[in-house]
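3.2 Worked example (two chains)
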Amino acid sequence: MCGRYVAVADRSVISREFQAMPVDASELAPDYNVAPTKPVYAVLERHDERQLRVLNWGLIPSWAKDSKIGSRLINARLETAAEKPSFRRAWAKRRALLPADGYYEWYASPDAPLTKANKPRKQPYYIHPKDGGLMAMAGLYEIWRDPSVADAQDPDAFRWTCTILTMSSTDQLGRIHDRMPLLVPERNIHQWLSNDIADPPADLLLPASPDYLQAYPVSTSVNRVANNSPDLIDPLPAETDDLFS
């Protein structure tokens, strides 16, 4: 799965790189510990225009009675997204990109010390492009009508939410976690976002290649969502190994 990521690129950089027009007045601050339900940037196409919008991470299906479901739908499995009731409408018509500088996963080595709960202690890893560029994670989005807001003209009447698509990890990434986010190569972005393609072919999406990504261990400070500073992505001083080497 992908349960935390890093998004520090500002709106102008994302807008330029993905050729998307910002449509929200608000700008997000750099976030070194993006967690579910937080606002995030998303690139999508609506009304024949590529837009850059602020959505909340955690998809709320249009038919949902309660917004709380969003906190459980932060990831959608590629293998079932086209059929699952929670995601199939979004798969057909509401696909998106979630720009990210990198993401975190947790790994428990066979010789890891045990926690108080008698479980192996997990070490967080930061996984990011070796060249320092932005990742275009494949996502889906929905627009949910909040029944508690009577006036449909109220800006809070509709919630825009999203989820990240995942697949089984490659051998190298699988050493850390068995799931990984899917990426959309630049050459396939238009096809992935296009509303004219109801069932995009799987080869538009790629697993994160070990030649493209780097992984290294970071401080367990990232475990607390309240922690949010640049040092979260600093490699641990005593560790020099790269799981992809």
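3.2.1 Second chain
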Amino acid sequence: MLRARGTARAKDPKKAMKRVLRIVFGERKLKFAFIVVCILISSFSIVYSSNFLGTFIDTCVFPIIGVENPDWTPVAAALMQFAAIVSFSVVFNYLLSRTMVSISQDTLYSIRVEMFRKLESLPISYFDRNQHGTIMSRFSNDTDTLNQFISNSLVQLMQAGITIVMVVVSMVMNSWFLTIVVAVFAFITMRSSSFIAKRSGRQFAAQQADLASVNGFIEEMMNGQRVIKVFCHENKSRSDFAVLNEKLRKSMTRGNAYANVMGPVTMNIGNLQYVALVVIGAIAVILSGGATSGYTIGLLAAFLQLSRSFSNNVNQISQQMNMVLLALAGAERIFELLDEESEKDDGYVMLVNAKTDENGNVVETEEHTGFWAWKHPHHDGSPVTYTPLRGDIVMKDVDFGYVPDKTVLHDISLYAKPGQKIAFVGSTGAGKTTITNLLNRFYDIQDGKIRFDGININKIKKADLRHSLGMILQDTNLFTGTIKENIKFGKLDASDEEVIAAAKLANAHDFIMMMPDGYDTMLTNNGESLSQGQRQLLSIARAAIADPPVLVMDEATSSIDTHTEALVQSGMDRLMANRTVFVIAHRLSTVRNSNAIMVLDHGRIIERGDHETLIAQHGVYYQLYTGAVELE
């Protein structure tokens, strides 16, 4: 079974945070400025409310205590002023929340777009190395945690930080002595939070990696349900899942154990601080003469409110640190994907629409002529040349390995003239599919040359090269959509008439018309409602509508019965007419009419020739064809 690699950790939280903030606010400076204004107003209202209590007690309440006919006008005026400030703050808090929701969704939208764009630009080797479920986890779990951070934690941290600054300034102005008491308890709180956060951060990073492993395993098991049931491996699958799930349970338990203890610790430190301020403040009020000088009841009441605001916001930061650490662990995994090196393409030769002018020269044209040519600029300043697209392919002395120190193809040389059919036969692992993967530059060779119409394929832009190649694989991939849309995948701007013509060429038209909605029949789950043969016919139609000069058929009929194979083979024969074709087949009867047959063994061509020549040699091909040796 596949497993996710290792346990990821947040390597550089500061760098990740800077990058997140740059993404969130880099292109939203006006919204960021508005958020800061809203937070300043909200924080000001908190400080104002606390100081209002002290002023209200000292200037409005004490003067009317014991008075026979008190004047309530100052009290009413103060309360109206307080209500206006609070109402103003409520409005800006609402605007703050709405703006942050907008920013968070815009940010997540752009991140998902960038992730998908990056995914589409990555080389095939990336998907060879990484489990699909692990990749999906970055789009789901990691983006969810990042969303929670941006929409909730980020604004709360900003608000708490600004409020703390304003509260500290106000506390110092009221009483520097009591502020020192608060600072002592704040230091204790910060040390405690830091101790807990370091440990919870490691576990949250492990949690994200373990969650990706579980998701990847589940996806793998869902895709392989038929195989699991055929071999009665349900118990084995459950036990493997239990191991991964137990690892996730442990990392989540440890992470949340630290996270859950942080709140009570900081809250109780805050309570101790409150008690200490009450005792010390009461003594100071008594020693200073009560409400007449120095420390007053109102000042103490205001300071206690300020200290409570200070503690609450410190606790808020402590609580949010868990979400921050979890989000940064997820953000780093997202950035790892975004920082993956995209598939390199140094090609400069392009495939263009062409026509022949009155002098017989090939020239470029904007109209679609059905005639293609390679547009070849020259670095030496020579005029641009146009080479007609014919499908002439030459491989000379090609060596290749998926990793540098392990060569899997050795000294491969062959040629295919336009309209020829070249077949590859050999046991599994001989290198047949690897050769076809080199033709479309899914991988680049280590040594040798591959030329397409006389042009080194390294000089051809990859998209243009692949546009000139059609592939029909053993494992057909059909996408969620109509049959028509799946056929048009080979040519997105194809007309309905072209779709029908391609389906008829592939022998798919008859079965399509028997479907409930014909060409508009919806396909889901990789076309599970179709037989393997029907799915293969659709893949032939998809290749046919692209009308490529070169076709690669990788064991396209190996997984279907002989009756269906005849139908599929008939469609392929029509498609192969006048095209250069590379065929990989286990059934040697399908390659008898090939112009050349290459017999491979351990990455080397050990025999070559047409069917009659190889049979006459009584070599490996003869043994394979007569059944003396079976393909594995």
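3.3 Remarks
Residues 350-388 form one domain.
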